């Protein structure tokens, strides 16, 4: 995705948005990141389970959209989505031309939290744990208990 140079579109507004969003996501403490992951995967897994109860393709689409839209709108975080977005921001930070930085009025130093170490330790580890808890405990265990 970095080589598409989409981050340069609209005068760099796409790139600054990716950098700012990734910088914000990577700056959370452990517990907030964990709970954002729990809530996200609770909704994502709920949409999957609801899809199983649907009988037509239209029903499946209609049951998937509200929970997934809710997790996005609420700002909850998913490890796979963050692995993509934050990695893209890291590539922008490392490889964007000086003209990009001039167009957005920022420098690489304005995003100190964006490091590969922070991606894995500060974000993906607690987020993946949270995603597992949200999917397996909050949704799957509840379904198991209800339909025991």
Shape: elongated
CATH architecture: Up-down Bundle
Level-1 CATH class name = Mainly Alpha
Which segments are poorly predicted (pLDDT under 50) over 5 or more consecutive residues?
none
Write the CATH fold name.
Glycerol uptake facilitator protein
What does it look like?
The chain is an all-alpha fold and 148 residues long. The chain has a single domain (26-146), classed as Glycerol uptake facilitator protein, CATH 1.20.1080. The protein is built from six helices and no strands.
Layout of helices and strands:
Layout: H1 9-26, H2 30-53, H3 57-74, H4 79-95, H5 98-104, H6 116-146
Helix pairs in contact: 1-4, 1-5, 2-3, 2-6, 4-6
